[in-house]
Amino acid sequence: MAHWTFLTNHAHVLLCVSKNPNTRLRDIAEMVGVTERAAQRIVTELEEAGYLERVREGRRNSYLLNTAMPLRHPLDSDHRIGELLTAFSPRTPQS
Question: Which InterPro entries match (predicted)?
Fold first, then answer.
């Protein structure tokens, strides 16, 4: 049986970075289920497209997300990345 998901690896990388902007590329790759090289390529593509910015902090990278960027598919382009990240953020229990 084929394995598939509703979100792309690019979306999963954005979700990882939104949860921890200081996460290592190695950890992103492990969480997403891709090689470190694939994670590097995805981060570079997201950076080139303006969805995230890499900030060098000593020997580590930190990431800033541009949550105002639209989703890329024409059917979704009226929604912003911030909406996706909010929808998949952990919810706090209601009192």
Answer: ArsR-like_HTH (IPR011991), HTH_MarR-typ (IPR000835), WH-like_DNA-bd_sf (IPR036388), WH_DNA-bd_sf (IPR036390)
